[in-house]
Each structure stands twice: as structure tokens, then as C-alpha cells.
Amino acid sequence: MNDKPANNRAGWKQDPAGVRKNILAVAMAEFAANGLSGARIDEIAAKTSTSKRMIYYYFGDKEGLYGQVLEEAYRQVRTGEQELELDHLPPVEALKLLAEFTFEHHSRNPDFIRIVMIENIHDGAYLEQSELIRLLNAGAIQKLEAICRRGRDAGLFRDDVAPLELHWHISALSFFNVSNRATFSRIFGNALFSPEGQRTLKEHLVEMVVGLALKPDRRSRR
User: Fold this and answer.
1) Within 10 A of 92 (CB to CB), how many other CB atoms are there?
2) pLDDT of 12 over the 70 cut
3) Can you tell me the distance from the alpha carbon of 206 to that of 166, in angstroms, rounded to the nearest whole number?
4) CB neighbours of 125 closer than 8 A, spacing ≥ 6?
5) Is the pLDDT of residue 218 over 80?
6) Mean pLDDT of the 16-22 span
7) Residue 25, Cα to own-chain centre: how many angstroms?
């Protein structure tokens, strides 16, 4: 069993939250690179400031660790959305900012995309077991519902604009930008993945999503 020196063990007792955070960060990279079946607790332990024994102490087993990595991945993106403070912004600006944030977050965090892809391979079985993930993602839709309500009240948004559909469009375009980057760039070249190409894609994502929400007569006034 892989154990670290005594001075590291003292650190585990002094900062258990830090130890747990370190394990989750390393494990997320390992699961993203190797999948649930391919990741090894020995490899994860070797790259942390703790030991295999402590990983089992905190998370139970590899599947328990994977489940909490999945929760942490969603927690990070939803925390980022919360920090945008969208409730204080006009509806069009709030929707624009949310779309921009999602595009940029996914682009900066390819491991998040890979973890979600892996979970889809497992038919969402581990996600389904997590009450936390359900609550986090319900909050994401609630934010869009609030934005849409303000937009309708202001006479800007269509009466039938659907928050869940807006979330789907934002997620789909932001997700594909990372998930299919390797194959897309090898077939069609790297132009869309240059800094200029990414700025253009983000701008067009915002235009499409905001345009979908706006009333037809409001689109021409933008």
C-alpha cells in the first residue's frame, strides 16, 4: 500500500479539506484521461500529497471517488455561474454573459468535458445517484427561468421562450467546441480554434442564443 512520509501524514490531520481538494483535482485529471475503468488509485495516490490509504478513507473506493469527482466538476461550473450575479443585470445582458461564461469555462476546462463524456458512456448512472448534481443543475435552469421572466416582463423576450431549450443550445455549442476539437481540426483545419476563431464562435453563440430568446421585432433593433 502506497504511504507517504510522516511529515505528510501530519499535514493530512491539519488540513483535511486541503487533502480532499488535492485528491479530487488529481483524480479529475486521471479519470478524464483514462476513464473510470482505466484510472488507477495507485496512480492517483502517487500524484497527490497523501496516500492510497487516505483516498480510501475519504472516498471509500474508486467508484466513490469518481462519483465525487463528477460532483466537483458540476459544482465548479455552477459556482462560476453563481459568481456572475446575473439577477442584477438586464435580461439580454444576463443571457449574453451566461452564454459567454459557458463557452469560456468549457474551453478552459477540457477535463470537465471529458468527465461528462465518460459519464455519458456510463449512461449517466453515477450522475443519477447524486442528489447534489440534481440540485446544482436545477439551479442552472432556475437562473435561466428568472432571466426569461425578466425578459418577458420587459417586453423583450418571446412568451414561449423555453429556459431548458436555451440551456441546451448554450451547452451543446460550448460542449462540441471542446469535445470534437481533435477530429474537427484534423478534418477541417485549426482556423476555428485559433484565438480569433474562438472569439468569433463565442460571438456567434451569443447572437444565436439571444436571437432565439428575443421577439422577432426586437431582433431588428439590436
Assistant:
1) 20
2) no
3) 11
4) none
5) no
6) 88
7) 14
Give 49's pLDDT tier (boundaries 50, 70, 90).
confident
Q: Quote the CA–CA distance of 23 and 58 in Å, as a whole number.
A: 9
- Cα separation, 191 vs 189, in Å, equals 6
| Helix or strand run (H / E) with residue 212 | helix 195-213
What average pLDDT does the structure give for the chain?
92
Q: Pull the grid cell for residue 142.
A: 432556475
CB 156, CB 218: distance < 8 Å: yes
C-alpha cell at 75: 459544482
pLDDT at 73: 96
Q: How far apart are CA 151 and CA 159, in angstroms?
A: 9
Band of the pLDDT at 220, cuts 50, 70, 90? low
The reported pTM is: 0.89
Nearest to 40 by CA among 96, 73, 2: 2
Task: List CB contacts of 51: < 8 A, sequence separation 6 or more.
Answer: 1, 2, 3, 4, 8, 9, 45
- What residue ranges define each of the domains in the chain, with the CATH number in brackets? 1-60 (1.10.10.60), 69-219 (1.10.357.10)
Which residues touch 154 (CB under 8 Å, ≥6 apart)? 90, 91
